[in-house]
Design brief:
Helix content: 10-25%
Number of strands: 44
Structural class: alpha+beta
Largest sheet: 6 strands, parallel
Distance between the termini: 72 Å
Oligomer: single chain
Number of helices: 12
Bound molecules: beta-D-mannopyranose
Shape: globular
């Protein structure tokens, strides 16, 4: 510490995050005791500092030991569904710390302790701008009316001017005030003429303004604060309709179908996440045509950078508070800690344009009613636990949102209906696990579609290249200890001894012939996951506007593992991510099969109608057309439209169903804007032939271009290169006979050769 530093009026020591129980000593003076990893601490420590070297010592305590002590004191256990600890030894609930650290069904148990966010000294004089809140009130074509609230702390009583510069320009937005020593909130109301709005990905540019607040005395700027602001309004609209209540987000006055995924931390050891991995993650979401990510409640309130990247890339955020699959203790210190945590995080994140919704918790209301948590509990304890639930999720958290971020909505629990009841497919949001845990066929996504599907998914293995990072050659089998270990989803409740790997195998064998080779099994697991994700998204979007959101579980992994993710720990895309990217395109054509009839829909996110040509064809795998129809169609804006319904039973005798494909295209003039294919039997019943696959590889600047042609239809064609991180413009696709497919390969590997390419497909 320099002499100069100590000359400042205030010298703060800031801890942005300590995980979790700690005593903090500065030169052996106890200056702070912590018990919540989700809050920051600012301590004026001028008096404790001396010129020269100073010692900061932080002593951490075991969260498990602390948790066990708290549990013993309370005299009862609390349901904590997903925590991977022996029954009655679950301690995650007692500590405000990332629930997934205690083990989850996609991540190991590593109950860490340490400094997880920056620690620094910040000195200031005269006055400080402590916080700012900016909200867009109304928007029309000509102007946006806005409010800014600025919290200042004044050390010297006097006359001050607060001014707001926008993109570096002073446009006369200011407020003069005589301020006494102490804390004050200053409010400025202003309008922006011809505002450039912030739009989610797909609907426009996510424009951000640079707002710079200056606090001046006379001509001297005493302190300033800059933030990036998107001018936008976002509303969760729940109004009565014929089936119940709507559940959709309206952005700048337009109902928007939410396309996206749930994110988990990209590292098990939370602070190990790099800037690079955040950039990659957000880029993968954006390029897959997503417009919303859900920060799920069993993890962390994400880093500022995450929200900044979402702002810049037009990805809205459904933000859970960090509560998942467990009840909470109700003692006063715990509730106060939750209150501070809610206030701190709401204030930290509220200015982000991306922030769309605050959600109280993940699956706690659902778990309480559906997962036998109440079995064997004393009546008094049951009442106490539910009473605590209501205090937290119906009182403390919504109050924090109301007071500190009134422009955004609060939703107490996911999944739920409008009156805090269990999901009923008529209102509210749902977690649809009928496929996966419910072992229903993939096609069942088309039945009884919910209003907003906040979670759904199916597991797949990561690529062989990723598997080889944790398994040796002799361990490449479903039953090896390491392959079992990397599967964290234990499903004893489905069947004793059953785990996620068994469920993948079960699903694969419903649709494919049991594979002999492990490598082929890995490929099939990805093909099946891709088929499920394609089907779910198409079914959800085709049910628009009844259904207005589809967020799959889960985008990413926190270690190399076998899970529901579409992008593995190394940011490598599974087949499903390519499928998701296609199914989330702004305009898609979909087809629902009911026995031997087909229903063709077009789904458009565009906000104006357009005319197009629908072309459908029934053909065999050599390309021979059996039936063809072309018709002009009008595509309605921002909804799904049924374009065609056709009974194919006469064209499709049962014994021939495995030889045919239904090919659908939407064209504007010569330009194809959407396409799809439907098969009438399970993959294992398809009569596929051995293909004569011809291909060519060319190198352009930093990319490779592979062109492929086959004499017969090739299903789920996967291209592999020796570069595990190669990225393809498309992969795992179906190749129609005698039609050229061009795939761009991005690889940092120099000199990729034609012979280096490996192909996998379902054909013999
Ligand atoms: C969802 C999530 C997580 C879990 C996932 C897979 O319901 O909320 O709890 O990891 O299911 O089981």
């Amino acid at each position: 510490v320099t002499d100069d530093l100590l000359k400042n009026d205030v010298v703060d020591l800031v801890f942005e995050g300590l995980d979790t129980y700690a005593d903090v000593f500065l030169n052996e003076d106890l200056i702070l005791t912590t018990d919540n990893m989700f809050v920051s601490h600012r301590i004026n420590c001028k008096e404790n500092l001396a010129q020269g070297p100073n010692t900061l010592r932080i002593h951490f305590y075991s969260p498990v030991a602390k948790g066990l002590a708290k549990q013993a004191k309370s005299g009862h256990t609390i349901p904590a569904h997903n925590e991977k600890a022996p029954e009655n030894k679950q301690t995650s609930i007692y500590t405000r710390k990332a629930p997934f650290h205690y083990g989850w069904d996609w991540g190991p148990r590593l109950v860490t302790s340490g400094i997880w966010r920056p620690v620094y000294v910040e000195a200031w004089n005269h006055a400080a701008i402590n916080d700012v809140y900016v909200a867009t009130k109304t928007i029309d074509k000509w102007q946006a009316t806005m409010n800014a609230w600025v919290d200042v702390e004044i050390l010297n009583t006097g006359n001050y001017t607060l001014s707001l510069l926008i993109n570096g320009e002073d446009i006369g937005i200011r407020k003069d005030a005589g301020l006494r020593k102490g804390k004050h909130r200053l409010e400025i109301e202003f309008t922006l003429e011809k505002p450039r709005l912030w739009w989610p990905n797909g609907l426009g540019e996510p424009w951000l303004y640079d707002f710079e607040f200056h606090l001046r005395r006379g001509d001297t700027i005493i302190c300033e604060k800059s933030i990036m602001i998107g001018v936008r309004t976002v509303k969760l609209v729940q109004k009565p309709d014929t089936s119940g209540h709507t559940f959709y987000f309206e952005v700048n006055g337009i109902p928007v179908f939410m396309k996206g995924a749930n994110v988990i931390p990209s590292e098990t050891l939370t602070p190990a996440v790099t800037v690079e991995s955040y950039r990659k993650l957000i880029a993968c979401a954006k390029s897959a045509n997503m417009n919303m990510l859900r920060v799920w409640g069993g993890a962390i309130y994400e880093e500022d950078l995450f929200y900044q990247l979402c702002d810049e890339n037009g990805l809205l955020v459904w933000q859970d508070f960090m509560f998942a699959c467990a009840m909470q203790p109700g003692d006063q210190p715990h509730l106060e800690s939750i209150k501070r945590e809610a206030e701190y995080n709401v204030k930290r994140l509220r200015n982000h344009a991306c922030l769309a919704l605050w959600c109280g918790n993940n699956e706690i209301m659902y778990g309480w009613h559906k997962w036998e948590w109440q079995d064997g509990l004393d009546n008094k304890i049951t009442q106490h636990l539910w009473g605590t639930y209501e205090k937290i999720f119906h009182n403390i958290l919504p109050a924090a949102v109301r007071h500190h971020d009134p422009k955004n909505s609060y939703w107490p629990s996911t999944p739920a209906t409008i009156n805090n009841n269990l999901p009923d497919r008529k209102s509210g949001d749902e977690h649809d696990w009928t496929v996966c845990f419910g072992q229903k066929p993939i096609d069942s996504y088309w039945e009884n579609v919910p209003r907003f599907v906040t979670e759904w998914g199916l597991q797949a293995f990561p690529s062989m290249q990723t598997i080889r990072t944790f398994a040796n050659d002799d361990e490449l089998m479903l039953d090896s200890a390491v392959i079992r270990h990397r599967q964290r989803s234990k499903l004893d409740w489905l069947q004793l001894g059953f785990d996620g790997n068994d469920l993948i195998k079960w699903y694969v064998e419903q649709y494919h012939d049991a594979p002999e080779q492990f490598e082929h099994f890995v490929y099939l697991s990805q093909v099946l996951q891709a088929e499920a994700y394609k089907t779910a998204i198409e079914a959800h979007r085709s049910a628009m506007p009844h259904c207005m959101g589809s967020l799959f579980w889960q985008l990413n992994d926190c270690w190399p593992t076998i899970s529901w993710s579409t992008i593995d720990y190394f940011s490598r895309w599974k087949a499903a991510h390519y499928a998701v990217k296609k199914a989330f395109r702004p305009v898609i054509v979909t087809v629902k099969r009911i026995n031997s009839s087909v229903r063709v829909y077009v789904v458009s996110d565009k906000i104006s109608a357009f005319d197009a040509m629908l072309q459908v064809k029934l053909m065999d795998f050599s390309g021979k057309t059996i039936f063809e129809s072309v018709k002009e169609v009008e595509v309605s804006p921002n909804t799904a439209t049924l374009l065609l319904e056709k009974d194919l039973s006469l064209l499709l005798p049962k014994d021939k169903a495995g030889e045919k494909v239904f090919d659908i295209r939407l064209l504007i003039g010569d330009k194809q804007i959407a396409d799809n294919m439907l098969f009438f039997v399970k993959p294992k019943d398809l009569q596929l032939a051995r293909p004569d696959l011809q291909y060519r590889l060319r190198q352009t600047d930093k990319e490779y271009l592979v062109s492929l042609v086959s004499d017969t239809l090739v299903r789920n064609l996967c291209i592999e290169t020796p570069d595990p991180d190669a990225r393809f413009s498309d992969n795992f696709f179906d190749l129609l006979p005698n039609q050229q497919a061009n795939v761009v390969i991005k690889s940092s590997l120099p000199g990729l050769q034609k012979k280096d390419l490996v192909f996998k497909y379902l054909n013999p």
